[in-house]
Amino acid sequence: MVQEAAVELLENVRTELAGLELPLALPGVDEARTTTTSALAQLDDYILPRWKSLDAPLLAVVGGSTGAGKSTLVNALVGHPVTRSGAIRPTTRQPILLHHPDDAPWFTSGRVLPTLHRVHGEIVKAHTPASRAGASPDASAMASLVLVADPAVPAGVALLDAPDVDSISDDNRQLAGQLLAAADLWLFVTTANRYADAVPWKLLLDAASRDITVAVILDRVPQGAEAEVAEDLQAMLQREGLAGAQLFVVAETALDELGMLPAHTVAPILDWLREISDDSAGRADIVRRTLNGTVRSLSGRLEVLASAATAQQDAGNQLTQDVESAFADAAVRISKASSDGTLLRGEVLARWQDFVGTGEFFRALESGIGRLRDRIGAFFKGQPPPAVKVETAIETGLQAVIVDQASRAAEDADQRWRADPAGRQLLGTDDLSSTSADFAAQSAAEIRAWQGEVLELIRAEGAAKRTQARWMSFGVNGLGVVLMIVVFSFTGGLTGAEVGIAGGTAVVGQKVLEAMFGEDAVRRLAKEAKLSLEARCENLLEHEKRRFLDRIGNGEDSLDAPAERLQALAAQLASLGGTGERA
Fold first, then answer.
1. Average pLDDT score over the chain
2. What is the pLDDT of residue 467?
3. Is the pTM of this model over 0.70?
């Protein structure tokens, strides 16, 4: 794969990881979030910069346990104090990157470890003891990287003195991990007393998974125990897949007056670094091996994140389904209540009866003794009473139904989410078991808008009729109220006398409109009005649903199957990491 294509793939991976959301409190989600963060950091700190600059100098990170003597070792490798060493822990808080002056452009540009602010350091004056060399321990300076150009550092290989991997400071440990993840090779420093500790071995095993070049420096080995301790450590390295790691032994030796090790104690390590410096092909091989191993490791992490994304998607779908089901049931109940005659009770029925004449009129219809034709004829004599009171009663009654059903849906959804750990975490201390504060006002506004739409339907239909004078004398509002009553009067679910009342209401309303516009037109108008009402009710319920669903992520696309994309990218990364290509 050519270099440009590789960089494009890695940029796509970065974009996917940066947009990955794991919002639900599922088992293992904290680990998955940490994996996402560390993968992004390694892409920024090492993988992308290295792929874009394959010929850049190697970054050798000197890391290890507390008190292992890392800073003392770095000082010995360059032959004079450059980084502070001493008994107070931790001594290294601000990482120091030593490089040959010719390599300065590679590191001053922020190519590698771009999140760390650059600070330009200077070589300390001659005869400065190691206890006062370099930067003073300063926790506030951890976000910066001290760059020191030193001719004693072999060209093509930079040394980075990192904080302790097992520091008592969480920030120190995190920074150490970040720096080690950005390394082309590790100089891992441990001691005869600490080489079997769990924390260093966790990092060494990570190195094995990345196939990184590692040199293990066994420091402070008691005189005479070098062979025995080295043999045991070598066996451990072999068992854990690190048989190829370089092993150097530094015996316990008294420091000079400046706090420096004798030069001969680190001569084999320095020779090894110089061999790397002099061998451009060897450096390229180290880069290729570490980079490919790191990319393969990243591929594995993407597969883990794909599984986490799948779990999130499944859980999110269930939570979404719980909410959708609750509010879908509410929509059905509202639709039924607005078409089966339920609304034609109480105030609405009373105002309708007042509108058409007298209560005796409907009681006559109920008993079957009324003559519908005569009543309809009488209906059109003169001007009917105002329809405003009927409209107001319809608004009040319909609003009560909508608010009640939406409240029931919200309570149902809230209960379902609280029964699920992920839903419970999303709700937190918020109570969504009732409608939002302005829902009643929004419902009333939507009902009034619907009523206005019904009047427009009547006006548009009547404008083309020959009976225009007739329906105009009756009034748009009057006929609009009649159409609303027809929409509400398709009986079903009523009992006893209510059936007769609702049935009579429907007959009168339908006959009145048919006399004006014709049977087909009335059927069409009633259907349009009903569909419009249902659409407005669904919009109101949608707003209430979003109070729940928006908590899952960024709307409808928040859980849109990122697992498939992560799996596909993981496969491409595995191919990239296994090619062994440099460009």
1. 83
2. 54
3. yes
Please determine, for residue 70, whether its predicted confidence score (pLDDT) is greater than 70: yes
- With 90 as the cut, is the pLDDT of residue 303 above it? yes
The one-letter code for the residue type at 565 is: R
pLDDT band at 371 (very low <50, low <70, confident <90, very high): very low
213 SS3 class: strand
Q: Which residues are CB-neighbours of 203 under 8 A, at least 6 positions away?
A: 63, 165, 177, 180, 188
Give dist(CA 186, CA 183) in Å, integer: 6
How many Å apart are CA 304 and CA 384, to the nearest integer?
A: 73
Q: Which residues contact 477 (CB under 8 A, 6 or more apart)?
A: 386, 387, 388, 391, 455
Burial track 518-552 (b if 16+ CB lie within 10 A, e otherwise): eeebbeebbebbbebbbebbbebbeebbebbbebb
- pLDDT tens sequence across 536-561: 999 999 999 999 999 886 444 444 57
SS (H, E, C) 462-483: HHCCCCHHHHHHHCHHHHHHHH
Per the structure block, which two tokens stand in for 163?
A: 């904080």
Which tokens go with 512? 């009145």
Residue (of 560, 564, 540) closest to 552 by Cα position: 560
Mean pLDDT of 142-146: 80
pLDDT value, residue 509: 66
CB-CB neighbours of 580 under 10 Å: 10
Interval 399-408 mean pLDDT: 95
Return the structure tokens found at 131. Answer: 């206890």
DSSP character string of 326-338: HHHHHHHHHHHHT
Nearest to residue 554, comparing CAs of 23, 18, 16? 23
Give kind and range of the element (H or E) at residue 145. Answer: strand 144-149
Q: What are 96's strand-pairing partners?
A: 146, 161
Distances (CA, A) of 92 to 17, 44, 64, 212, 506: 32, 23, 12, 24, 87
Question: How many Cα atoms are found within 13 Å in the side-chain-facing hemisphere of 42?
Answer: 26
CB 579 within 8 A of CB 292: yes
Amino acid letter for position 560: D
Q: What would you measure as the largest C-alpha separation in the chain, in angstroms? A: 124
Task: Order across the sheet with 185-191: list the strands.
Answer: 117-120, 144-149, 96-99, 157-161, 58-64, 185-191, 213-221, 246-251
Residue length, the chain? 583
